[in-house]
Structure formats: C-alpha cells, structure tokens
Design brief:
The protein is α+β, with helices and mostly antiparallel strands. The protein has two domains: 3-109, Beta Polymerase, domain 2 (2-Layer Sandwich), CATH 3.30.460; 112-187, no CATH class. Helix content is 54%, strand content 21%. The strands form two sheets. It has a five-stranded mixed sheet. The radius of gyration is 17 Å and the shape is globular.
Length: 190
C-alpha cells in the first residue's frame, strides 16, 4: 500500500467513524507518531466498544477474542481494542484528547494513555516470548518517558486495578531499568 493510498484510506475510515457517531480513540503506532518522530507501523489501532463493530460492516473482522478484534478496512489492517477490557475503556474515557491528524481532530490517547496500554501489554509479551514486540514497546516507553517525563505513580496505581501483583512488580522493574538507561543516556558515553 503506497503512502497516498494509505492516507486516503485512513481519512475515509475516520470520516466513517464520525458519520456513524462511533466513540473511538486512536492508539498504537499511529498515535505514537503524534508524540514521537520516526515510529513505524503497519496497522491502525483503535479503542472501540464491541457494539460499534455492528455499525461498521466495512471492517472485515478476521479474528476476535474478549479484548481484541483484528480486521481490514480496504487495504488497511486494523487492531481494535475492545472496551469490555476495563483498562481500554478507562483509556478511552480518561486518557484521550483531540489531536490533529489527516486534517481532522481525532480522539487520540494521551502520553499517559499510551504508557498505560504499553505497560499493561508487557507482561503478556514477555510470557509469549515476543522479543521483537517487547523491544518495540520498551523503546516506545523509553521515548515517551524521556520526552514527556510523566508522573509514574498514578500510572502504577491505575495498573494495580488491571494487573496481578506479580505482573505489576515486573512492570515496575522494567520501568526502573528504562529509567536507569535514560539516566545513562543523559550522562553520555564519556
């Protein structure tokens, strides 16, 4: 899919969401581009409620489980994070704001919302042994922490409602490691 075709398809998707009055929030790699330069992605990620899928027959759903659905809109791959998951619903409700994208204001996850989603996903990615995605997510987390310096305690407090204690402990360790790397980065390689 070339860049012009991709942009046109994304624009059509966002217009369709507005026309059908579907509450959604842009998350994932394209949302990261709103905050961090140079992030690549192969799909578009949206938080939506499950009933919204019935209003979007143009999206061909390929797979679905309790928290996610994957599909296509024309040539565009879409990952849908379903609001049945209480964290996804919380990010949609509390951690989103309008951002300008393809000449429209799009509801987009905030820095804190993106961090919550990425930190929430890490324990599962580690268990799956998905090193490539772990590396990508940890890089995104490091970039957001470096550039925006968000307060982490409220994020850990929120994650405590959605992760088992052992996973939360592991997430805190990963963040501590990232913070140590960022401190080294700030000192340079003297």
């Amino acid at each position: 899919m070339n860049a012009d075709s991709l942009l046109g398809t994304v624009t059509r998707l966002f217009r369709l969401l507005v026309e059908r009055r579907i509450d959604y929030v842009l998350v994932g790699g394209i949302a990261m581009l709103q905050y961090i330069e140079g992030r690549n992605t192969e799909d578009i990620d949206l938080i939506v409620a499950l009933p919204a899928l019935k209003k979007l027959p143009e999206i061909e759903i390929a797979s679905q489980d309790a928290d996610f659905a994957r599909g296509r809109f024309a040539e565009l791959q879409i990952v849908l994070l379903l609001t049945r998951n209480s964290l996804f619903e919380k990010v949609q409700r509390k951690y989103s704001q309008p951002r300008s994208f393809v000449e429209q204001d799009i509801p987009c996850a905030t820095v804190e919302g993106l961090l919550l989603l990425k930190l929430y996903a890490l324990p599962s990615l580690y268990r799956q042994g998905n090193f490539a995605r772990v590396n990508l997510y940890e890089g995104d987390i490091a970039a957001l922490l470096h550039d925006y310096r968000p307060a982490l305690v409220p994020l850990f407090d929120e994650l405590a409602h959605h992760l088992p204690e052992s996973d939360l402990r592991a997430v805190r360790e990963v963040v501590a490691d990232i913070e140590r790397r960022l401190a080294r980065f700030g000192k340079g390689l003297n």
